[in-house]
Design a protein that fits this description.
Order of helices and strands: HEEHEEEEHEHEHEEEHEHEHHHHH
Shape: elongated
Distance between the termini: 42 Å
Number of helices: 12
Helix content: 40-55%
Strand content: 15-25%
Oligomer: single chain
Amino acid sequence: MLLLAGVGEGFRNGNRRQLETFGKNIIFFWGGRAPAVAGSFNSMRWFNLTYDDYLDIQSEAKIAVNISPVIARDDIRAVSDYTSTNGQVSGVPPVYSRVRTIPLQVGRWLNDEDNEQRRRVCILGREMTRNLFPGRPAVGNTIMLNGVRFEVIGMLSMIGNEEQNSTNIRIFVPLNTMRELFPLKGDNSKEGNAISFINYQPGTFDENEAAKDELHSIVARNHGGFDPKEKDVWEEWDTVKNQKTMGKIFTAMDWFLGGVGLVTLALGAIGIINIMLVAVTERTREIGLRKAVGATNRSILFQFFLEGACLTLLSGALGVAGAMLVIHLLSGVNLPQGFDTPRIVPLSAISAVLSLALAGISAGLYPARKAAMLDPVEALRQE
């Protein structure tokens, strides 16, 4: 049971840690499909979010916080004095670092002046730094993005594993600089107004659905006034909902493991009763002799009660040691993405041993009482 609980805890921690490489309690909002004909959902057309949508959301939203629009393109050529490469260039406002995981290793993050003045500055992800400045310092140097010179003002630490987080191969520039120099192509591009998506957070963990409804209403009004509550309209990823779903799975797992634990304890208690009853039967003459020379019922009761408790505690300790050994062996195994090394939570181990001890002690009471109530004369007659 402890081993299963340790595996579950490893999965819980791995899932939480993987989500936190993106950020905490984030909702990704890409846009949606509006009716091609007003009032009809039989024919749908895709639409991008726009900068105007962001401005309306920023001014009208009451529940959503840390609202960050993103313009992302992967067709921009990055060139340094040493090499060139392709990577995703993202235009973001300063608030982006409050929503997403942005661990700066060197330099600084974007500020309001960078965005308002459309400065040509950038921050490099860890792998992008290695590609553009192999073995050389990046901060303070410059790169060319589609022929436009940008100063590198910061470098990020590695996030997660190299291949598992695209932030490592990303270049960040101020949002307004991106809108001016590299506007998004595609729908709404004639206005130079489209954005790739919006990141935001609900005011509290439990307000994620209300925050989404709030944004849906604003965007639906801006794109034709269709019903925002229609199914299959919106493209979004709610990490809060994901966490809640995983929480339900872990709760169900805890209940399942609890049920397994109860059955295991019941079987263990039955085993202890049988062992102690056999011990009482085999030691009947010993019990009779002790009572004949003056042993009280209480001393006999305490002797067998103590034996049962020691047997239970010893078996519990061996079980915990075995589970710890297996988990230690698993620590050297490369686990799939989203799984951490299983670990035993001290509280779970203590609870398991105490529960086992309680079950063993309870199970030992009947055999101990039976031994204590033996008549010494009848006990001494036993062969």
